[in-house]
Known about the structure:
heterodimer; A: 114 residues; mainly beta; six-stranded mixed β-sheet; four-stranded antiparallel β-sheet; 0% helix; B: mainly beta; five-stranded antiparallel β-sheet; 11 strands
Amino acid sequence: GAGVSQSPSNKVTEKGKDVELRCDPISGHTALYWYRQSLGQGLEFLIYFQGNSAPDKSGLPSDRFSAERTGGSVSTLTIQRTQQEDSAVYLCASSFRGGLYEQYFGPGTRLTVT
Amino acid sequence: GENVEQHPSTLSVQEGDSAVIKCTYSDSASNYFPWYKQELGKRPQLIIDIRSNVGEKKDQRIAVTLNKTAKHFSLHITETQPEDSAVYFCAAHSGGSNYKLTFGKGTLLTVNP
Protein backbone atom coordinates (compact mmCIF):
# COMPACT_ATOMS: atom_id res chain seq x y z
CA GLY A 1 0.00 0.00 0.00
CA ALA A 2 0.92 3.65 -0.18
CA GLY A 3 3.34 4.93 2.38
CA VAL A 4 3.62 8.36 3.96
CA SER A 5 3.96 11.08 1.36
CA GLN A 6 5.11 14.66 1.73
CA SER A 7 5.04 17.64 -0.54
CA PRO A 8 6.87 19.49 -1.81
CA SER A 9 10.05 17.45 -1.80
CA ASN A 10 12.11 20.62 -2.00
CA LYS A 11 11.22 24.19 -1.18
CA VAL A 12 13.39 27.25 -1.59
CA THR A 13 12.00 30.43 -0.12
CA GLU A 14 13.16 33.90 0.69
CA LYS A 15 13.64 34.99 4.26
CA GLY A 16 10.46 36.45 5.67
CA LYS A 17 8.07 34.47 3.48
CA ASP A 18 5.58 31.93 4.80
CA VAL A 19 5.72 28.27 3.76
CA GLU A 20 3.34 25.34 4.03
CA LEU A 21 4.51 21.75 4.11
CA ARG A 22 2.08 18.90 3.57
CA CYS A 23 1.98 15.36 4.93
CA ASP A 24 -0.31 12.54 3.83
CA PRO A 25 -0.13 9.74 6.40
CA ILE A 26 -0.87 6.09 5.85
CA SER A 27 -4.60 5.50 5.77
CA GLY A 28 -5.92 4.36 9.12
CA HIS A 29 -2.99 5.70 11.14
CA THR A 30 -4.26 7.82 13.99
CA ALA A 31 -0.90 9.20 15.10
CA LEU A 32 1.07 11.76 13.11
CA TYR A 33 4.38 13.36 13.98
CA TRP A 34 6.45 16.20 12.57
CA TYR A 35 10.22 16.28 13.05
CA ARG A 36 12.97 18.60 11.92
CA GLN A 37 16.37 17.29 10.92
CA SER A 38 19.20 19.71 10.32
CA LEU A 39 22.26 18.58 8.37
CA GLY A 40 23.95 15.74 10.25
CA GLN A 41 21.71 16.21 13.26
CA GLY A 42 19.16 14.09 15.05
CA LEU A 43 15.41 14.06 14.91
CA GLU A 44 14.03 17.16 16.57
CA PHE A 45 10.44 16.57 17.62
CA LEU A 46 8.07 19.37 16.63
CA ILE A 47 4.45 18.32 17.10
CA TYR A 48 2.37 15.18 17.60
CA PHE A 49 -1.27 14.50 16.73
CA GLN A 50 -3.10 11.50 18.17
CA GLY A 51 -6.67 10.93 17.08
CA ASN A 52 -9.00 13.63 18.31
CA SER A 53 -6.82 14.58 21.28
CA ALA A 54 -5.29 18.01 21.58
CA PRO A 55 -1.92 17.99 19.78
CA ASP A 56 1.33 17.93 21.70
CA LYS A 57 2.98 21.15 20.55
CA SER A 58 5.80 21.05 23.04
CA GLY A 59 8.51 20.79 20.37
CA LEU A 60 7.57 23.79 18.26
CA PRO A 61 10.58 26.12 18.42
CA SER A 62 8.68 29.41 18.20
CA ASP A 63 5.23 30.85 17.58
CA ARG A 64 6.14 31.17 13.89
CA PHE A 65 5.55 27.42 13.65
CA SER A 66 2.09 25.91 13.61
CA ALA A 67 0.46 22.74 12.37
CA GLU A 68 -2.97 21.39 11.83
CA ARG A 69 -4.45 18.07 10.93
CA THR A 70 -7.74 18.11 9.12
CA GLY A 71 -10.21 15.27 9.46
CA GLY A 72 -7.67 13.12 11.25
CA SER A 73 -5.72 12.63 8.03
CA VAL A 74 -3.67 15.19 6.09
CA SER A 75 -1.48 17.54 8.08
CA THR A 76 0.04 20.89 7.20
CA LEU A 77 3.03 22.44 8.92
CA THR A 78 3.19 26.19 8.47
CA ILE A 79 6.23 28.34 9.10
CA GLN A 80 5.60 32.06 9.08
CA ARG A 81 8.21 34.73 8.41
CA THR A 82 10.87 32.12 7.65
CA GLN A 83 14.41 32.61 8.91
CA GLN A 84 17.64 31.10 7.61
CA GLU A 85 17.88 28.90 10.68
CA ASP A 86 14.63 27.23 9.61
CA SER A 87 16.54 25.56 6.76
CA ALA A 88 16.35 21.82 7.36
CA VAL A 89 14.61 18.64 6.28
CA TYR A 90 11.13 18.37 7.72
CA LEU A 91 10.03 14.79 8.25
CA CYS A 92 6.54 13.55 8.84
CA ALA A 93 5.75 10.14 10.31
CA SER A 94 2.58 8.25 11.08
CA SER A 95 1.82 5.22 13.18
CA PHE A 96 -1.19 3.05 13.84
CA ARG A 97 -1.97 4.28 17.33
CA GLY A 98 1.01 6.13 18.76
CA GLY A 99 4.27 5.52 20.54
CA LEU A 100 3.88 1.76 20.93
CA TYR A 101 3.70 1.23 17.18
CA GLU A 102 6.22 1.53 14.38
CA GLN A 103 6.53 4.99 12.92
CA TYR A 104 6.56 5.15 9.14
CA PHE A 105 8.44 8.15 7.86
CA GLY A 106 7.81 10.16 4.76
CA PRO A 107 10.62 11.19 2.39
CA GLY A 108 10.81 14.64 3.92
CA THR A 109 10.69 18.18 2.60
CA ARG A 110 14.02 19.94 2.24
CA LEU A 111 13.47 23.59 3.10
CA THR A 112 16.06 26.17 2.14
CA VAL A 113 15.62 29.75 3.28
CA THR A 114 17.76 32.21 1.36
CA GLY B 1 9.02 14.20 30.22
CA GLU B 2 11.20 11.42 28.87
CA ASN B 3 14.87 12.11 28.12
CA VAL B 4 16.94 9.74 25.98
CA GLU B 5 20.73 9.90 25.85
CA GLN B 6 22.60 8.02 23.12
CA HIS B 7 26.29 7.12 22.90
CA PRO B 8 28.56 7.24 21.05
CA SER B 9 27.68 9.94 18.56
CA THR B 10 30.05 8.39 16.01
CA LEU B 11 31.40 4.87 15.72
CA SER B 12 33.85 3.46 13.20
CA VAL B 13 34.50 -0.29 12.92
CA GLN B 14 36.18 -2.67 10.53
CA GLU B 15 34.02 -4.94 8.43
CA GLY B 16 33.30 -8.12 10.34
CA ASP B 17 33.68 -6.52 13.76
CA SER B 18 30.81 -5.94 16.18
CA ALA B 19 29.25 -2.57 16.95
CA VAL B 20 27.42 -1.56 20.11
CA ILE B 21 25.33 1.56 20.61
CA LYS B 22 23.96 2.43 24.04
CA CYS B 23 21.02 4.50 25.20
CA THR B 24 19.74 5.55 28.58
CA TYR B 25 16.29 6.84 29.41
CA SER B 26 14.88 8.76 32.33
CA ASP B 27 11.25 7.67 32.70
CA SER B 28 10.97 4.41 34.61
CA ALA B 29 7.46 3.98 33.15
CA SER B 30 8.84 3.69 29.60
CA ASN B 31 7.92 0.33 28.13
CA TYR B 32 8.77 0.32 24.43
CA PHE B 33 12.19 0.87 22.87
CA PRO B 34 12.61 0.89 19.07
CA TRP B 35 15.71 1.41 16.98
CA TYR B 36 15.64 3.20 13.64
CA LYS B 37 18.25 3.17 10.88
CA GLN B 38 18.67 6.10 8.52
CA GLU B 39 20.88 5.60 5.50
CA LEU B 40 22.35 8.67 3.85
CA GLY B 41 19.65 10.65 2.07
CA LYS B 42 16.90 8.27 3.06
CA ARG B 43 14.12 8.20 5.61
CA PRO B 44 14.49 6.48 9.01
CA GLN B 45 13.20 2.91 9.15
CA LEU B 46 12.52 0.64 12.09
CA ILE B 47 15.03 -2.20 12.35
CA ILE B 48 14.23 -3.76 15.71
CA ASP B 49 12.28 -2.99 18.85
CA ILE B 50 11.89 -4.38 22.33
CA ARG B 51 9.18 -4.15 24.93
CA SER B 52 9.75 -4.00 28.64
CA ASN B 53 8.58 -7.53 29.35
CA VAL B 54 11.70 -9.04 27.72
CA GLY B 55 15.39 -8.50 28.26
CA GLU B 56 16.76 -9.34 24.84
CA LYS B 57 15.58 -9.70 21.27
CA LYS B 58 17.51 -10.91 18.24
CA ASP B 59 16.98 -10.67 14.51
CA GLN B 60 19.77 -12.23 12.50
CA ARG B 61 22.86 -10.02 13.00
CA ILE B 62 21.18 -7.43 15.19
CA ALA B 63 20.09 -7.69 18.79
CA VAL B 64 18.78 -5.35 21.42
CA THR B 65 19.18 -5.74 25.17
CA LEU B 66 17.21 -3.95 27.86
CA ASN B 67 18.09 -3.37 31.49
CA LYS B 68 15.06 -1.81 33.15
CA THR B 69 16.72 -1.52 36.52
CA ALA B 70 19.52 0.58 35.12
CA LYS B 71 17.23 2.22 32.53
CA HIS B 72 19.43 1.51 29.58
CA PHE B 73 19.19 -0.43 26.36
CA SER B 74 21.70 -1.28 23.67
CA LEU B 75 21.86 -2.21 20.00
CA HIS B 76 24.35 -4.89 19.02
CA ILE B 77 25.34 -5.51 15.41
CA THR B 78 27.57 -8.51 14.75
CA GLU B 79 29.62 -9.30 11.64
CA THR B 80 29.20 -5.74 10.42
CA GLN B 81 29.03 -5.09 6.69
CA PRO B 82 29.52 -1.85 4.72
CA GLU B 83 25.76 -1.65 4.14
CA ASP B 84 25.33 -1.31 7.91
CA SER B 85 26.84 2.17 7.60
CA ALA B 86 24.10 4.62 8.59
CA VAL B 87 22.81 6.76 11.43
CA TYR B 88 21.06 4.76 14.13
CA PHE B 89 18.49 6.30 16.46
CA CYS B 90 17.18 4.81 19.66
CA ALA B 91 13.84 5.87 21.11
CA ALA B 92 11.72 5.34 24.17
CA HIS B 93 8.00 5.46 24.74
CA SER B 94 6.62 6.35 28.13
CA GLY B 95 3.66 4.55 29.53
CA GLY B 96 0.36 6.22 30.19
CA SER B 97 -1.75 8.32 27.86
CA ASN B 98 1.16 10.15 26.25
CA TYR B 99 1.96 8.07 23.20
CA LYS B 100 4.89 10.16 22.05
CA LEU B 101 8.24 8.58 21.23
CA THR B 102 11.36 10.39 22.38
CA PHE B 103 14.43 9.87 20.16
CA GLY B 104 18.11 9.92 21.00
CA LYS B 105 20.39 12.18 18.97
CA GLY B 106 21.71 9.38 16.79
CA THR B 107 24.94 7.46 16.19
CA LEU B 108 26.76 7.63 12.88
CA LEU B 109 28.13 4.13 12.26
CA THR B 110 30.79 3.71 9.61
CA VAL B 111 31.86 0.21 8.60
CA ASN B 112 35.19 0.25 6.84
CA PRO B 113 35.80 -2.48 4.23
